[in-house]
Recover the amino acids of this structure.
């Protein structure tokens, strides 16, 4: 059985990338896990936004599976909802086969004790766990995490590491060097050298 690529970048030139920069060529298969390290301003978030479809590329092709889990650098969460309300609303958009997926994601990031709290009442670290939980919702085949370590305590980092390792999806983590993300995934790519 041949595995289908979860992400393909072919001769990609990013919108904010210098015109003389090398074209990006990259392929990620199901279950692959990659950490993309790069200094601030090197284009990591531009690439993330291009993969997610929020930013157009200048040239090339970005191909990805239909189900994307996505964590932005700055989470945009509905602060007036409880954790469970938010994840249940997202679950309702997914297919019927994913019933109780919200509960599984609450458990995955140890959010049970905060499930009935409004998101606005949570600390930044707990909000980040909600942000991570929503990325795993819906059985994505590709999960993109843009600086997911932000505001996480050691327990949160351990839960993230475990979720990445157990995931059936391809996972790409984008982060600056020396932020603790090196411990999340063994396979590292230095993005600063590509741009």
């Amino acid at each position: 059985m041949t595995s289908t690529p979860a992400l393909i970048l072919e001769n990609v030139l990013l919108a904010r990338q210098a015109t003389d920069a090398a074209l990006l060529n990259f392929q990620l298969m199901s279950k692959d896990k990659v950490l993309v390290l790069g200094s601030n301003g090197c284009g990591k978030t531009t690439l993330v936004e291009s993969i997610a479809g929020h930013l157009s590329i200048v040239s090339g092709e970005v191909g990805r599976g239909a189900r994307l889990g996505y964590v932005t650098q700055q989470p945009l969460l509905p602060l007036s909802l409880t954790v469970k309300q938010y994840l249940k609303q997202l679950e309702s958009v997914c297919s019927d086969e994913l019933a109780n997926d919200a509960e599984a994601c609450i458990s995955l990031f140890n959010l049970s004790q905060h499930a009935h709290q409004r998101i606005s009442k949570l600390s930044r670290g707990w909000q980040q766990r909600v942000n991570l939980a929503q990325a795993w919702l819906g059985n994505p085949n590709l999960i993109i995490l843009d600086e997911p370590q932000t505001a996480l305590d050691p327990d949160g980092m351990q839960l993230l590491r475990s979720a990445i390792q157990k995931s059936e999806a391809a996972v790409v983590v984008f982060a600056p060097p020396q932020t603790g993300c090196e411990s999340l995934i063994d396979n590292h790519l230095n993005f600063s050298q590509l741009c």
Remarks:
- The radius of gyration is 17 Å.
- The chain has a mean pLDDT of 88.
